[in-house]
Design brief:
Strand content: under 5%
Oligomer: single chain
Order of helices and strands: HHHHHHHHHHHH
Shape: globular
Number of domains: 1
C-alpha cells in the first residue's frame, strides 16, 4: 500500500516540478540546455544509479569547468538531479520497496523533506564564502566515504527489514539532518547507507529509502530554488534531460562495471574540487552571487 502511495506521489510531484521548471526557465529565457550539461547529467545519474553518487561528481565538474558561479551549485544539484532521482526512486520502490518496513520508509522520507525545507532558505540567504566552505567540506567527506568503501572498511549491515524503536528513532532523526544538508549540496546516499547498515538494516533495502527521500525532498526544495536568483536553468534542464534516460539504462542494462577503479577516480577528482572551493572560501573578494563564473 505504502509503495503505491509513494509511486503516485512521485508522479504528481514530478509533473508539478516539471511544469514549474519549464515555466520559470521560459520566463528567464533559459530553456535551451547546453550539450555539456546534458552529457554531465547522463554520466552522473548513470553512476548514481550504480551507487557512485551524483552530487560530488557534478560539483567537481561544475567547479573545473566554471559552468556556474559557486553560489549556484546547491540549487543546480537539487533542481537538476530531481527528475532523474524521481525515476530512480520509482525503480527501486518497484524492485525493493515491498520488502522495507513501510513505517521506516515513510518516516525517513518525511524527516528528510522536513529537514530540506528548513535548509533551503538558509542556502539561498547564505553568504557565498559559507556556501563554498560547506560544499568544500562536503566533498572532503564524500572522498573519504568513497575511499572507505574501496578499502572495504564500510559497515556490511545486517539482514533486518525493519528496526527496533531506538534504532528507528535514530534513523529518522539523522535523516532530518541529512535532508537539511542536502539543501547545501551534501549528498544523502552515502551517510544514509552507512547509518542504516550500522543500525542493522539489510543494505539492499537502504536503496529505496535513500532514493525516495531524495526524490521527494529535491523537488520540494527545487520549488524554492527555482524562485531564487542563484540558478542557471540551461544547466539544470540539461542535467535533467541527460539524467532521466541514464537511470533506467544503468538499472536494467548494465550488469557489471569496474566500480572500484571508478570510485578511486572520483576520489581524486573530488579532492581537487574540494581544494579549489576551500581555497576560494578562504580568500576575500567581491561576492560571487550571479555574475559569470
Amino acid at each position: 500500500m505504502i509503495v503505491t502511495i509513494l509511486l503516485a506521489g512521485l508522479c504528481i510531484l514530478g509533473v508539478a516540478f516539471t511544469t514549474v521548471l519549464v515555466k520559470t526557465a521560459a520566463r528567464r529565457r533559459e530553456l535551451r540546455p547546453t550539450a555539456e550539461s546534458i552529457g554531465l547529467g547522463a554520466v552522473t545519474n548513470f553512476f548514481d544509479t550504480l551507487g557512485i553518487g551524483s552530487f560530488a561528481p557534478t560539483t567537481a565538474w561544475i567547479k573545473f569547468r566554471a559552468l556556474v558561479p559557486d553560489a549556484f551549485i546547491p540549487a543546480t544539484l537539487n533542481t537538476g538531479h530531481a527528475l532523474p532521482t524521481i525515476v530512480q526512486s520509482a525503480i527501486f520502490l518497484v524492485l525493493l520497496g515491498v520488502h522495507v518496513d513501510p513505517w521506516l520508509l515513510g518516516s525517513c522520507i518525511a524527516a528528510s523533506v522536513a529537514g530540506a525545507l528548513l535548509g533551503a532558505p538558509l542556502v539561498i540567504r547564505a553568504p557565498v564564502p559559507i556556501v563554498r566552505l560547506v560544499v568544500g567540506i562536503a566533498l572532503l567527506v564524500a572522498a573519504l566515504l568513497f575511499a572507505l568503501r574501496n578499502l572495504e572498511l564500510m559497515p556490511e549491515g545486517g539482514l533486518a527489514q525493519s528496526l527496533g524503536t531506538p534504532e528507528f528513532a535514530i534513523a529518522v532523526s539523522v535523516h532530518f539532518l541529512l535532508g537539511a544538508l542536502m539543501a547545501f549540496g551534501i549528498g544523502l546516499y552515502a551517510p544514509s547507507l552507512i547509518l542504516l547498515s550500522l543500525l542493522g538494516l539489510d543494505p539492499r533495502l537502504a536503496f529505496p529509502i535513500m532514493a525516495s527521500a531524495c526524490a521527494y525532498l529535491m523537488p520540494m526544495t527545487g520549488f524554492r530554488f527555482a524562485r531564487a536568483e542563484r540558478i542557471d536553468f540551461r544547466i539544470v534542464i540539461g542535467i535533467a534531460l541527460g539524467g532521466i534516460p541514464a537511470v533506467p539504462a544503468a538499472a536494467f542494462v548494465v550488469k557489471e562495471m569496474p566500480m572500484v577503479a571508478l570510485r578511486w577516480c572520483v576520489v581524486a577528482v573530488v579532492l581537487f574540487a574540494s581544494f579549489l572551493l576551500l581555497r576560494s572560501a578562504s580568500k576575500s573578494g567581491p561576492p560571487d552571487t550571479g555574475g559569470s563564473p
